[in-house]
């Protein structure tokens, strides 16, 4: 098993550690909950452990569906070993149902199911509040070439197809979610970061109950209760 050596990066909800293997990192899931680009913040016991467990389950699903991820193995109750990637500074959002900023920007009714998935891109910058961008921005500013952009879209839709089916079997509606991609040491495009209720919207399929971080954002209920329900449901699939 690899050993942690030094802190590489600390974000709002995660820490990334170097290891004694130059090709591997350890991803640590914090108990911090943030919203509105850090303007709302709390530390909630056990959030990190739940996010780690959900990420492991989802990445295992994706590997089964043929989507390459950076996940290697579990390391501790709130840590996983991952491949070191050269990350593309673009967040990819896939939407199946109207919610969040899509409803606000376009004046649409929350909960309206879309006729097909929508893919959106955002420049990853806390200082700029992650502004929305398009494919021309990505290509012109050198964040990714056209071939890579097309591959990202293809992989994002494959992730969506896989996870919609898996979450549906778990009794959960996959409303929308955020992805991040990077290149491994061999130049392969790989899904990185995480998949948690922090960066996705997950609603109970029968009741419509919000189970994700919107519980914290909009004071809709206990965050841990929602995350525990997600883990319980997906563990049965």
**What's the number of domains?**
2
Range of strand content: 25-35%
Using DSSP, what is the number of strands?
15
CATH homologous superfamily label of the largest domain: ATP-grasp fold, B domain
Question: Which structural class do the helices and strands define?
Answer: alpha+beta
Reading the helices and strands in chain order gives EEEEEHEEEEHEEHHEEEEHH
| Gross morphology | globular
State the strand order across the main sheet: 1-2-3-7-6
> What is the CA-CA span between the terminal residues?
29 Å
The CATH class of the largest domain, by name, is Alpha Beta
The main pleated sheet reads as: 5 strands, antiparallel
What Rg, in angstroms, do the CA atoms define? 17 Å
CATH architecture of the largest domain: 2-Layer Sandwich
* Overall average residue pLDDT: 97
Protein model, in words:
This protein has 237 residues and is of the alpha+beta class. The chain has 2 domains: 4-83, Phosphorylase Kinase, domain 1 (2-Layer Sandwich); 86-222, ATP-grasp fold, B domain (D-amino Acid Aminotransferase, Chain A, domain 1). 30% of the residues lie in helices and 34% in strands. The protein contains 6 helices and 15 strands. The protein has helices at 47-64, 100-106, 135-140, 146-169, 214-217, 223-234; strands spanning 4-10, 14-19, 24-29, 32-35, 40-43, 71-76, 79-83, 86-87, 90-97, 113-123, 132-133, 172-179, 181-183, 189-191, 200-204. It has a 5-stranded antiparallel beta sheet with strand order 1-2-3-7-6. Helix 1 packs parallel to helix 6. The longest helix is centred in the middle third of the chain and has 24 residues, at 146-169. It is globular. The model has no long low-confidence stretch (mean pLDDT 97).
